[in-house]
Amino acid sequence: MVYRFGRWRYGIRSFALRRLMAGFYWVAYKLVKSILGISLPCEVVIGRNLVIAYSGNITVSSYTSIGDDCCIRSGLYVAHIGNNVDIGAGARLINRINVGDNVVIDANCVVTHDVPGDSVVICT
Predict the structure, then answer these.
(1) Hey, which end of the chain has fewer CB within 10 Å, N or C?
(2) CA-based max dimension of the chain
(3) What is the pLDDT of residue 8?
(4) Distances from the Cα of 10 to the Cαs of 14, 21, 28, 33, 59, in angstroms?
(5) Separation of alpha carbons 110 and 85, rounded Å
(6) What is the reported pTM?
(7) HSE-up of residue 45 (Cα within 13 Å, Cβ side)
(8) Are 1 and 24 in contact (CB under 8 A)?
(9) From start to end of the chain, where are the E strands?
(10) CA-CA distances (angstroms) from residue 46 to 37, 40, 86, 123?
(11) 95: buried, middle or exposed (CB in 10 Å: 19+, 13-18, 0-12)?
(12) pLDDT of residue 39
């Protein structure tokens, strides 16, 4: 809800009202971040049917875009994530990488390079 409210406030034409709503958004964002442990800024572009499987320790960068039908768990995401992607708990996607469509990333993986579509990333 807080993410959607943050996106909605950009459409307000009145500058004063938009600034007021920005203050409400900032307070709500900080509450969600401290209580649930989820940092999902309103600048992130999200497709339909995003599932956040766990609360706590989820940090999504403002530069991230997430495609349709994705499931993310705890971790750090600084990437472009395609459609139908499943990311395991504790995975870290770093360095503004691109993750293609239909990808599964194993838990606790640190991904620092682009991942092509239709692939599975397993950490050993």
Answers:
(1) C
(2) 54
(3) 96
(4) 10, 9, 16, 21, 22
(5) 16
(6) 0.84
(7) 9
(8) no
(9) 38-39, 45-46, 51-52, 58-60, 65-66, 71-72, 75-81, 86-87, 91-99, 104-105, 110-111, 120-121
(10) 19, 10, 15, 26
(11) exposed
(12) 92
Tokens of 17: 């009202």
Q: Which of 73, 70, 78 is nearest to 102 (CA)?
A: 70
What is the per-residue pLDDT for 107? Answer: 92
Q: How far apart are CA 90 and CA 120, in angstroms?
A: 16
Yes or no: say if 3 and 38 are a contact pair by the CB < 8 Å rule. Answer: no
- Which amino acid would we find at residue 95? N
Q: Tell me, what amino acid is at 62?
A: S
Mean pLDDT split into 10-residue runs, the chain, 124 residues: 95 96 97 93 93 86 92 88 94 91 94 95 89
Residue 67 near residue 47, CB atoms below 8 Å: yes
**Both tokens assigned to 93:** 């996607």
